[in-house]
Amino acid sequence: MPQAPSDTLSRRHAAIRYRLTALGLDALVVTSMPNVLYLTNFTGSSAIVVLTADRLLFVTDFRYVAAIDRTRGTAAECPALEIERVDSSYDETLAALLDSLPGARVGFEARHLTVGRHQWLEASLRKRSRVSLVPTDGVVEAARVTKDAFEIAILREGAIRLSHVARQVLQAVRRGQTEREVAAAIDDRLRGGGFEKPAFDTIVASGPNGALPHAQPGERKLTEGDLVVLDFGGVYASYCVDLTRTVSIGASAPRAREVYAAVLEAHDQAIAAVAPGRSRFDIDAAARDALKRRGLAEAFGHGTGHGLGIDVHEDPRITRRRAETPVSAVKSETEGEHRGDQVSPGMVFTIEPGAYIPGWGGVRIEDDVLVTDAGVDVLTNVTTELLEI
Amino acid sequence: MPQAPSDTLSRRHAAIRYRLTALGLDALVVTSMPNVLYLTNFTGSSAIVVLTADRLLFVTDFRYVAAIDRTRGTAAECPALEIERVDSSYDETLAALLDSLPGARVGFEARHLTVGRHQWLEASLRKRSRVSLVPTDGVVEAARVTKDAFEIAILREGAIRLSHVARQVLQAVRRGQTEREVAAAIDDRLRGGGFEKPAFDTIVASGPNGALPHAQPGERKLTEGDLVVLDFGGVYASYCVDLTRTVSIGASAPRAREVYAAVLEAHDQAIAAVAPGRSRFDIDAAARDALKRRGLAEAFGHGTGHGLGIDVHEDPRITRRRAETPVSAVKSETEGEHRGDQVSPGMVFTIEPGAYIPGWGGVRIEDDVLVTDAGVDVLTNVTTELLEI
C-alpha cells in the first residue's frame, strides 16, 4: 500500500511544531493512534509519539520494533524517528521519557488521554523534573483537516475503487436476499476491490428498516416495493471513503419517487453549495432547505456530512449551526466546538442528506467531495438515478 | 443473534449497584460502549448509561430510539430503562441529567472518559446542583471478568464455530497464495461461519514474517519450508473468540519441529495449570518455563493470554508478575494494576504462547479456555499437530 513520502511527514512535523511554539509548549504527547499514523506512517496498534522542537520520540513495544526498522532507508521512512522501546508499560516508559525533559511544558491530547492515564502520569512524574502537563485540543486534528497532495491522491484512488464496488453491488443486489447476505456480499467486494477492510459496519436497511439511519443488517428479505438503503465504505491505504445509494425493489411507488427526488435535490444542492470560503453551515442549509421545501424538514434528523481521512468521521462536520449528531459519527460526544466555519481547498467530506419516515422507510444518497481552488470535485462517481431492481 | 435475557441484565445491574454502595456513590456514568452493551444489550455505537440505586437512564440520539423501542416487551428487554434523548450533544444531555440529581456523588469511568470531556462536564455542572464527579476504575469491567451463564453459552458456541472455521482454513490454505489472499479467505469463512465480523485484523505471517507477533498480511507468497502463523477471531452475538495455529508449507525442517514442539509443550503446560484458585502468573510461568527448558525464554516476549468477552482483550491478563504487553492487547497502556491474581470459575481467556526468532520466523498456538469448578474446559477444538501442507 502507498505510504506518505518522508518529505510529506517532515512537512507535517513542521506544521505541528509551529503550532506548539504558538501554544508555548516544548513538546506534544500524541496518544491518538490516527494522529500517530499521520505523523509517522505507523499502522500498528500501540505507540505514543513525543514531538519536541527537534526530536520525534517513538514509544512502542517489541512487537513493532522490527517492523519500524524495516522502513529505514525506504521512501516512506519517518524522518528522525527515535525508538523508545517499552519494557514494562507504555505509560511508565512515557513518564521516564518526560522526566528527561526537565522543566518542559508538555502538551497532551485532552480528547484522547483518559482521566485515569492522566492521573497516573501526573502522579508518576518526578517532582524534581518539574515537567508540567498541559491539555491541548485537536492540535494534530487541525492539521489533518486540510489534506496534503499525498492524501488527496489516496482519497481519489479510494473513491474510484469504491465507486467501482458500488456499481458491482448495484448490479448484483436481488430481491429475496436478506439484508445480512447483501451486507456480506458488499464486504466481499470491498476486499476484492483492494480495500484493507470496511470503513464501518456496512448498512443494508430495507423497507421500514430504512427509517433507522443506522440499522444493523438483519434477516429481513428484500421485498417487492422496498426502498433499500446501502451505505458502505472502505479503508484504502489507511484512508476512509464512504458511499450510500438507495434502490427500489421492483417498480417504485409514487411516494418513494417523491421522497427520493427530494433527497437527491438536497444532495445536489449541497454539492452545488461547496466552494472555498463557504460556511459548512451554509452547505448543510442548502440540503436542509431543499428537504424543507418538500415538507421533509422533520424527516432529516442528522447532519449533511462529515470529513473523511484516517478516521471515517472527522472534521469538518457539515451540520446545522447548532452542534448536532451526524448520521454516522460514532464518537461525537465532545465534538463540534470551537471550529472554523469556512471550508477550504484540501478538505474532503461526505454529502449525505436523507429522509427517514417511521414505519415507511428511508432514503439516503451519499457522495464524497473535495474542496478545490476552483470549487468542488465529486470524488465518487455512481449514478444517482433511482434504480428499480 | 441471541441476547442476554432480561433477568440476566437485572442481576448485572444489581451487582453494579452493590459495588456503588460500597464505594459510597449515588450513581455511575457509564461511557464505555462495551460496558453499555453489558448492562443493556444495546449494540449501537453511541449511548451513555447513568445507573442509580433505582433507575437506569439511557442517553442516546434519534438514530437509536426506534431500535430500543422495538425491544420493549421482548425477552431481551433491558429492565426499567428510561430513554433520555439527545437533542444537541451527548454531554449536554448528560450534564442536564446529572443536574437533576442534586448533591449526588456520581462515579465516572476514569479509564474511558477523556480529560477533555471530564473538564467540560465539570465546568458545565451547575454550581447549585452540587453534583460531584468521582473517578472510578473498572467497576463494570470487574463484573465482566466472571462470565454469567448466558455469556458462557455464547462463548462456547462462538468457540465451536471458530473451530469449524479453523478446520476449513487449515484444509484450504495452499502454497503459492499470498498472505493477503489467505487472510481474505479466512475473513470470508468467518462470515460464512455466522460471525458478525472478524474480532481483530486477521494475521497471516509466513516465513520470516512470523517473527513479528503482529505482522500485517502482505504480498509474500507461502513458500516451501515456511512456517505460517494464522491468527484469527470472530465476533459472535457481540462476544469475541480467538484462535491461532501454525502450519508448515511442505515438509518441516528439524528446527521448525523443535520450536513447534516447545511451543506446544508450553501451550499444554499452561492449560494444565489452569484451575480455580491458581494465580494467573503461575499459568504464565507454566508456559514460560517450558520454553525456557528448550532455550527459548528470550523468544517469548509477550504474555501467555488475555481474557475474552465483549472485548477481544480484557481481564484476566495471563502474564508475568510484572505487567507486560500481551501479544494482542491493543490498549494495554494503563492496564495491569490492582488486579486479583487468582483465576476463578466463569473466567474465559486465551492460552497463546509463541516463539519468535528474528530472521527465521515464529510459532504460536492459541486456544480459548473456560475456568470451571472442576478445572478447565478448552472451548476451541482443532488439532495441535504440526500440519504439513
Task: Summarize, please.
The structure is a homodimer of 389-residue chains. With 389 residues, chain A is of the alpha+beta class. Helices cover 33% and strands 21% of the residues of chain A.
Structural key phrases:
homodimer, 389 residues, alpha+beta, Creatine Amidinohydrolase, Chain A, domain 1, Creatine Amidinohydrolase, 2 domains, four-stranded antiparallel beta sheet, 10 helices, 17 strands, elongated
What can you see in these coordinates?
With 389 residues, the first copy, chain A, is α+β, with helices and mostly antiparallel strands. Chain A contains 10 helices and 17 strands. In chain A, helix 4 crosses helix 5 (115-124), helix 7 (149-172) crosses helix 8 and helix 9 (254-272) runs antiparallel to helix 10. Chains A and B meet through helix 3, helix 5 and helix 8 of A and helix 3, helix 5 and helix 8 of B.
Say which CATH homologous superfamily of the largest domain in chain A is assigned: Creatinase/methionine aminopeptidase superfamily
- What is the CATH architecture descriptor of the largest domain in chain A? Alpha-Beta Complex
Order of helices and strands of chain A: HEHEEHEHEHEHHHEEEEHHEEEEEEE
Categorize the overall geometry of chain A: elongated
The multimeric state of the shown protein is: homodimer
Residue-averaged pLDDT of chain A: 93
Give the termini separation of chain A. 36 Å
What structural class should be given to the helix and strand makeup of chain A?
A: alpha+beta
User: Cα-atom Rg of chain A, whole angstroms?
Assistant: 23 Å
The number of distinct structural domains of chain A comes to 2
**Annotated CATH topology of the largest domain in chain A:** Creatine Amidinohydrolase
Strand order within the widest beta sheet of chain A: 4-3-2-1-5-6
Beta-strand percentage range of chain A:
15-25%
Tally the beta strands of chain A. 17
Give the helix level of chain A as a range of percent.
25-40%
Number of helices of chain A: 10
Q: Flag low-confidence runs of chain A.
A: 324-338
Q: Which CATH top level class of the largest domain in chain A fits?
A: Alpha Beta
How would you characterize the largest beta sheet of chain A? 6 strands, mixed
**Chain pair forming the biggest interface:** A-B, 58 and 58 residues
